[in-house]
Amino acid sequence: MEGGGCCSTSTSTKSPEKRKPRQQRQHQQQQEKPYKGIRMRKWGKWVAEIREPNKRSRIWLGSYTTPIAAARAYDTAVFYLRGPSARLNFPELIFQEDDLRDVSAASIRKKATEVGAKVDALQAALHAANSESESNSNSNFNSIRLSEKPDLNKFPESSDED
Questions:
Q1: pTM of the predicted model, to two decimals?
Q2: What are phi and psi of 49, to 5 degrees?
Q3: Strands of 46-51's sheet, edge to edge?
Q4: Taking Cα atoms as reference points, which of 71, 81, 73, 75 lies closest to residue 104?
Q5: Which domains does the chain have, with CATH numbers?
Q6: Per-residue pLDDT tens over the stretch 91-138
């Protein structure tokens, strides 16, 4: 039997992705994923989840329209799981409003999704306000430009002041 079937002993070549040095892979991942603890779905939503300490299970923190909202939800969860020594995406924005006495997965999920939803709503409102003001400024600019157009059917008026 000749060696052309399924049991070939030829060595397979690694894809160029696997040959990259570790730092280049980390840099590429960092560009794709701007914050820790989040990822982007194929359709553009940002999701956050965190692994429970000493367990294989994960706590689902929600799906958000902006990466900032997902990162804030992650920060809230990691803060309640690991305390003030946790590595956060936005350390200056975490403040402990109330004591979360029940440190169960459900209570952490609830608190994180509340924070994420608030930030998502604020980001959406900010985006809407910016796009509205931009469209208003563009329409004002266009109306000014339209009012300054000369009438090409008239002769120019002379403005001789002697």
A1: 0.60
A2: -155, 160
A3: 38-40, 46-51, 58-64
A4: 81
A5: 38-131 (3.30.730.10)
A6: 888 766 556 666 788 888 998 899 999 999 888 888 888 877 776 665
